[in-house]
Every structure is written in structure tokens, then in C-alpha cells.
Specification:
Rossmann fold, 23 strands, ABC_Ni/Peptide_Import
């Protein structure tokens, strides 16, 4: 390690003034980052990870925070060490973007929706580096190639909403790297990304660090990503650093009870090898929980046959349909009572559309959907509304799916009011029981969504889905944005409810380790089709389709001694699902490789 670290945080304390008094975001934190080193800062939401990084950028003042104590020493390229807490905002403007780059967590809010990608990439280069428009555009093209964005010339002219989440995140990374900063702060840069894109972006940040000697402060709650990226780890809990050390030491001999609990809550791919039925995780400090396998039944509840959902693309003067997005193409599967089928795949593969099509939140073009003997496709609007009692949905973003102006008790009771199932004291009792079920205190009933953490909001969404005693729940990426320990609790909760109430789940996710933990059956989707379908054990222990194999290979493992190299990741670019109006897709043909385990026969690369 160098005598002069690039960044050194000493005894940092950050306070926020609120109506109810002073809230301490970070109490007393010290650590440093050397050139060419990646320091991962881990901890749950609210532990002070992002507050520390925003303090280093001196952006915390714009968010209502105040650096009450401590030093932030940054070793400048030309000026030597400087305490950033004493720098004025004009000097900070020169340092930000030029010498310290930042990748923000949410790419949609980090990019300006009214400017093209090219304009946003060239802006920093012109301001900080004094480049001409032509020089800046040439460098922007080079950056987009570095972050592996296909057709970079076209992307420069596009707006952020025209790119997928993974592409937008790559643009944000390109912007952060544009001026070759000495320190790169990455705040949860891969949280919302698919496993394949995440693997590519981690490899990219690692390669750029090695090539340029940049110091990297990497903030995450995903321990598998820490194992893949970190040289050293700083563990934060409630505004304090509770443990620090080399990555192997933290994973193999964690000292602090919080670090031990954090590592115990990580679902690891391969943990379920050899078992046929899913079972809840054993959580630290929870002796009362059941961890028995959940066999379910062999009685079919949902049958989906040849489901097709397409979205028209209109164009020309008369807005005619010129092409179709083939979102779901000839999908068939069954779900048994009390069992879980998981659909996995990358963004844009059609998982969520398939889930919404089954509930007819999106109208399918054709196909058959049979729920417990009821033909869902032929139902009139009134009959469909009554049928919705039996099938409910948990959405990906709990904040967007809850009403910010309603108290939580009213949101959970609303489905029962709508269907006239209960009223008065019976309704209040049922709502209180649902809060108990999802392990939230009854005192929360009078709260509003903004007063809860992400994991607590997701529990409210689960309670609301349970209010009508449904037979089937479709969980669309229900745990993808949660901290690892909260995710483990919510997944366990869903499994306990399944064992108790005999619920069936269609679990839509891109997190392979969670899918392995919860599933009885797994379907792997690619470009609107299921390319492999079978019992979980068969699909995970003997993946047959090349795409399933590539997906498994990309999953980061929570073990620093089993890091993936860039050579391991050989993803083919995903072709477009848009085809012109007269296009007829190939028929879907499967071969059965073992009982119930089917693989798509295809002529394409995958």
C-alpha cells in the first residue's frame, strides 16, 4: 500500500436536521483507499454507506446533511493532499467529475431525460478538459465502446428513455470514467441489473482499475459482488464502521456478529444441491422458525398453453402497425397447488409480461390460461374482476405500488372492502392478523409508505396480496431491490406462508441463488420463449441449454477465492424481439432430456 492513499476519511460525522431533532447519518467513520485498490463498503440500507460517499463528493450539503466533524483528505493530481471539508464549492466543481467520478445507484435519475446521451457525455469533457465538440464526441464514442455498448454511433443520438436499464447504467459508468478520475465512487452500480450485465460491468470496472490505477470505493449490499470485486472490505452498521479487513479474512473469519449475520443471510448457488423440495434459510438469531422442506402437491392449479403476447409498433402518417414486439412467444407451463414455478432470464426476455398476461393486466394475443378449472381468457370484465380474488400480484417496486396518501391499514384492507368480504371490527381484526403474518408491528397500521424501509414496504405489499386468500400469487422481482438480510427474511416469509396456506407462486426473478432456494420448478426465458423448463434440481444441477449454462456461469459466488475472470463471460448480444408485421415465428419444439425436464430445440446461436 502507498504512503499516500488517494482518499482518506478520518473520524467523519454527518448530521441531518429534521423536525424531530438531529439525526446522525454517520457517527465516526475512518478508512482509506489506495491507488489501484477496490475498497467495498457494505451494510444494510440506512447504515451510512451512501452518506459517506456523498460526503467525499461534498454533495451531502445539497441533500440536507452537514459534515459536523472529521477530515476528508484527497490526494490531488497536481495539488497534493487537500482536506475536502475546507474546499469551497467552486474548487469542488473542478474536482467532481474530473478527479473524483461517481456512478450513482439509479441510472434513470442520474441521466437528464431531455438531453441526448452524446450531449451528456461530452459536457464534462468540454468543461473539465477544454475539448472541442469534435474531440469530445470522438472520446465519447471511445468511452461507449469501452463499456461495450453496441452501435455506439446510434446511441449518442438517442435519449435515456430509449435505452434499457443495463445500457443506461453503462452510460453512467462511461460518464464517470470520461475524465479518467483518480478516485471512482460506485454506489450500488449493479443493484438493478441482470446477472449477465452485472458480470460484464464488474469485469469492466475491474479492468479499468487495473489499466489506469484508479482507486475504487465500491458501495454495495450484495456479498457475492464484494467477493468478486474487493481488495479490502469495510462493514458499516448504523452509522459506524464495525469491521475492516482484507476480503478473504472478512469472508473466512468474520469477527463482528453483524458481519457474521450478513454472511449467513447470503443465498449461495449450489446450497440446495441434492434436495428436491425448497426450504427456508436458517437465519442467525431466529430459533423459532421452521426450516422443513415444502413439498407442495401434485394437483395442477394453473395451466398455461401456447401463450402469445405482442405489442404493436406503429409508424407512418396513419400510425399503422409496422412491426410487433414479440414479448411472449408460445409459452406453456403448469403450476401445482402449494408449489413455486420460477421464471428467470434477463431484462426484456418477457418474464414480467408473461406474469401480467396470466392476470390479464396485459391482454394476450392468444393462448389458454386455466386457473383451477376456470378459463381466464374467456372471462367478461365483471367475471375477470371476481376471478382476481384467486390471483394476486406483488410488484417489483413496493413504493410505486402503494398509495403515498393512504395509511397502511387502509391499503391492506382495500381489497377486502372492494370485494365486500369484511367490514367494521372483523375487517380491523383481519388487517391486524395480516400485519402479524408479515411480521410487522401493529403500531405500523397508522403509518404511511414513506415512513417505512424498502423491506417493510414489500411486506405491506405481501399482506395486501394475501388479504383475499388467493390461490396464486405472482411475485414480480419481489425481492430484487432489498438488502441481503431483509431479502432473506422476506423470502422466508413467502415460503412459510406457502407451507401454511398452500399458496402457489409464480416467482419472477433474475437472481439465480434466490430462485434455487424457493423453486419447485424453473423456466428459463430468452427472447419471449422458455428455452428450458423442468424440476429445479434438474435445471440447476444439469443445465442443458447453452443460454442456461451461460446464465449459471455469470452468477457471482460469495467466495473471494472463486472469482470470475472476464474470459469466463462469453455472452452473445441479444437480438431484437421486434419483427415486421408479417413475420411468422418458428414453431416451438422441445426435447425431453429427463422426466419433466424439457429443452428448446433451436437453430439460433442460443
Amino acid at each position: 500500500m502507498l504512503d499516500h492513499p488517494i482518499a482518506r476519511i478520518e473520524n467523519l460525522r454527518v448530521e441531518f436536521q429534521t423536525k424531530s431533532g438531529t439525526v446522525v447519518g454517520v457517527e465516526d467513520v475512518s478508512f482509506d483507499i489506495a491507488a489501484g485498490e477496490t475498497v467495498c463498503v457494505v451494510g444494510e440500507s440506512g447504515s451510512g454507506k451512501s452518506v459517506s460517499s456523498l460526503s467525499l463528493m461534498r454533495l451531502i450539503e445539497f441533500g440536507g446533511g452537514d459534515i459536523a466533524n472529521g477530515k476528508l483528505i484527497f490526494d490531488r493530481k497536481d495539488g497534493g493532499p487537500l482536506d475536502l471539508t475546507t474546499a469551497d464549492q467552486d474548487l469542488m466543481r473542478t474536482i467532481r467529475g474530473n478527479e473524483i467520478g461517481m456512478i450513482f445507484q439509479e441510472p434513470m435519475t442520474a441521466l437528464n431525460p431531455v438531453f441526448t446521451v452524446g450531449r451528456q457525455l461530452t459536457e464534462g469533457l468540454k468543461v473539465h478538459r477544454g475539448m472541442s465538440q469534435d474531440e469530445a464526441e470522438a472520446r465519447a464514442l471511445e468511452l461507449l465502446r469501452e463499456v461495450r455498448i453496441p452501435e455506439p454511433e446510434r446511441r449518442l443520438r438517442q435519449y435515456p428513455h430509449e435505452l434499457s436499464g443495463g445500457m443506461r447504467q453503462r452510460v453512467v459508468i462511461a460518464m464517470a470514467l470520461a475524465c479518467k478520475p483518480r478516485l471512482l465512487i460506485a454506489d450500488e452500480p449493479t443493484t438493478a441489473l441482470d446477472v449477465t450485465i452485472q458480470a460484464e460491468i464488474l469485469a469492466l470496472i475491474d479492468r479499468l482499475k487495473r489499466e489506469t490505477g484508479t482507486a475504487v470505493m465500491f458501495i454495495t449490499h450484495d456479498m457475492a459482488v464484494v467477493a468478486q470485486m474487493a481488495d479490502r472490505v469495510v462493514v458499516m452498521f448504523r452509522g459506524n464502521k464495525v469491521e475492516e479487513g482484507p476480503v478473504e479474512e472478512i469472508f473466512e473469519a468474520p469477527k463482528h456478529p453483524y458481519t457474521q449475520a450478513l454472511l449467513a443471510a447470503v443465498p449461495k448457488l449450489g446450497e440446495m444441491t441434492g434436495s428436491d423440495a425448497p426450504r427456508p434459510m436458517k437465519l442467525v438469531g431466529r430459533d423459532d422458525q421452521a426450516t422443513d422442506p415444502i413439498p407442495g402437491t401434485n394437483e395442477t392449479l394453473l395451466t398455461v398453453e401456447n401463450l402469445v403476447t405482442r405489442f404493436p409498433v406503429t409508424g407512418g402518417f396513419f400510425r399503422r402497425t409496422v412491426a410487433n414486439v414479440h414479448a411472449v412467444e408460445d409459452v406453456s407451463f403448469t403450476i401445482n397447488r402449494g408449489q413455486t414455478l420460477s421464471l428467470v432470464g434477463e431484462s426484456g426476455c418477457g418474464k414480467s409480461t408473461a406474469g401480467r398476461s396470466i392476470l390479464r393486466l396485459v391482454e394476450p394475443l392468444s393462448g389458454k390460461i386455466d386457473l383451477d378449472g376456470m378459463d381466464v381468457m374467456s372471462l367478461s370484465p365483471g367475471a375477470l374482476r371476481r376471478a382476481r380474488q384467486d390471483m394476486q400480484m406483488i410488484f417489483q417496486d413496493p413504493f410505486a405500488s402503494l398509495n403515498p396518501q393512504m395509511q397502511l391499514a387502509d391499503q391492506v384492507s382495500e381489497p377486502m372492502r372492494n370485494f365486500g368480504l369484511a367490514s367494521g371490527s372483523e375487517m380491523r381484526d383481519r388487517v391486524a392478523n395480516l400485519f402479524d403474518r408479515v411480521e410487522l408491528p401493529r403500531s405500523f397500521m397508522q403509518r404511511y409508505p414513506h415512513e417505512l424501509s424498502g423491506g417493510q414496504r414489500q411486506r405491506i405489499a405481501i399482506a395486501r396480496a394475501l388479504a383475499l386468500n388467493p390461490k396464486l400469487i405472482i411475485a414480480d422481482e419481489a425481492v430484487s431491490a432489498l438488502d441481503v438480510s431483509v431479502q432473506a427474511q422476506v423470502v422466508n416469509l413467502m415460503m412459510e406462508l406457502q407451507a401454511e396456506l398452500g399458496l402457489s407462486f409464480l416467482f419472477i426473478s433474475h437472481d439465480m441463488a434466490v430462485v434455487e432456494r424457493v423453486s419447485h420448478y424453473v423456466g428459463v426465458m430468452y427472447l419471449g420463449r422458455i428455452v428450458e423448463l423442468g424440476p429445479r434440481r434438474a435445471v440447476f444441477e444439469d443445465p442443458q441449454h447453452p443460454y442456461t449454462q451461460a446464465l449459471m456461469k455469470a452468477v457471482p459466488i460469495a467466495d473471494p477465492r472463486q472469482r470470475k475472470s472476464e474470459r469466463d463471460l462469453n455472452f452473445k448480444p441479444i437480438p431484437s424481439p421486434i419483427h415486421e408485421a408479417g413475420y411468422t415465428p418458428d414453431p416451438t419444439r422441445y426435447k425431453e432430456v429427463s422426466p419433466g425436464h424439457k429443452v428448446l430445440i433451436s437453430d439460433s446461436g442460443y
